Amino acid sequence: MTTTPTLPLAPPPTAPLPLTGPGPSGRMRVVRVLLLLELVVALVTTLEALVVAAVGMGTPVPAVLTAAVAVVLALAARDAGRAAPGAVRRRWLVLAVQVVFLAAAGVDVTIAMLEGVPPLLLPALVRIAVPATVLVLLRGER
Predict the structure, then answer these.
(1) Which pTM was predicted?
(2) Of 11, 58, 92, 119, which has fewest CB within 10 angstroms of its CB?
(3) pLDDT digit string, tens, across residues 23-73
(4) DSSP alpha helices (H): ranges in 25-85?
């Protein structure tokens, strides 16, 4: 009986892959994910506003505004993924967008309550919790 020779498998590398620099902090990674989530919501809102404008039931202004917000969020998410300290160079712009999101959510909830219609719980919580979380996380990151 003959056996076929087997080649030994190469051992896995023990050294970690070299990094080009320190990675972003865990806090900035969470900020990046939340900004990307807001970006997706802004893009969907843009598409919705474009459809409403195309049907003739509205103006294209909301679509243009939400597209501008989407661009700001995309740039901020890109910066948040960088490893340099103070990676969100457009921090003031991101903070302003988050404050506008919170104000718009507050106005929507207030109008819904004044009309006697309770706002939907999950969308209202998401519209308030995500920007508030980004504000808190960016406040601590310098």
Answers:
(1) 0.65
(2) 11
(3) 567 777 888 888 888 888 777 777 877 787 788 777 777 677 777 777 777
(4) 26-55, 61-80
